[in-house]
């Protein structure tokens, strides 16, 4: 469906994948119900914008059910649609991961904006319409060309590489702990306030993606039992360690052995701040694990580190290429 609000104006492709923004009442709880055209028609002021909307229903599912293959298919279709801007509407459960996947494989300078809702349309104060309007405004803005994927909710604009979902229900759930928002909506206009550094762009893998990457979070008194024979089940591993990248000393030898068999990336379970490289020196510290062949994730949180590692492995990257990509994407590369 194409909704035209003017001739010779920016064309914005809006891809709907489902999620809370599209849900309606149903016995046992809300479920994905509304299509893209219905949602667009219900947004105040959207019909007054000087844009042309190309509305496409790609999926109608909760974002917990989305896959890498779904997002890669979306990227291919969005790149081929010859739009001046792209909006992706989906559930917020996996938004911090899908947005980063798109950021990595998006080959164009065209703005690509992801949004959703924390409150479904049945609730008072549903935030979906405002978020959708804001996302279209950002996608139509020249300020956001070349910045990769951005996430727009609650009148804030976040770079996909930094954004986190920090609350399970709040409309202000999305934040960028390591950087802050790169922009805001001010009186209905998008304003860029911070220019993120150049992003890492990778070749888009061809689905189906059959590479398996595990994610193990280290916990108090962890015995490392989850690591046993992990290389027989996974092609790579992201380890979410304590603090700046620490594990119990008893886990370190097993991690070192595993790192000789598959790529092991060390991140922090904290959700903000970097993995260090040379501050602590005890067994199980960041410097000890790096010496055993583990790759540091820098500022990338565990979820984004897993996305990056899976894309790299799907593209056939070797350990040297993986380490170089994490040095760049993690934001701690020299120079």
Task: Supply the key terms.
Rossmann fold, alpha/beta, 4-stranded parallel sheet, disordered N terminus, 335 residues, elongated
Can you put this structure into words, describing what you see?
The protein is an alpha/beta fold and 335 residues long. It folds into two domains: 191 residues, 3-Layer(aba) Sandwich (Rossmann fold), CATH 3.40.50.1170; 117 residues, Rossmann fold (3-Layer(aba) Sandwich). It contains eight helices and 17 strands. Strands 1-5-2-6-7-8-9-12-13 form a nine-stranded mixed β-sheet. Strands 14-15-16-17 form a four-stranded parallel β-sheet, sandwiched between helices. Helix 2 packs across helix 3. It is elongated. The termini are far apart. The N terminus is likely disordered.
Break the fold down into its secondary structure elements and pairings:
Blueprint: E1 2-4, E2 11-16, E3 23-24, E4 31-32, H1 36-41, E5 52-57, H2 68-80, E6 85-89, H3 95-105, E7 112-115, H4 128-139, E8 149-153, E9 156-159, E10 164-165, E11 174-175, E12 183-186, E13 189-192, E14 213-217, E15 236-241, H5 252-259, E16 264-268, H6 286-291, E17 295-296, H7 302-314, H8 319-329
Parallel strand pairs: 2-5, 2-6, 6-7, 7-8, 14-15, 15-16, 16-17
Antiparallel strand pairs: 1-5, 3-4, 8-9, 9-12, 10-11, 12-13
Helix pairs in contact: 2-3, 3-7, 7-8
Short description:
By secondary structure, this protein is of the alpha/beta class. Helix content is 24%, strand content 20%. It has 2 domains: 2-192, 3-Layer(aba) Sandwich (Rossmann fold), CATH 3.40.50; 213-329, Rossmann fold (3-Layer(aba) Sandwich), CATH 3.40.50.40.
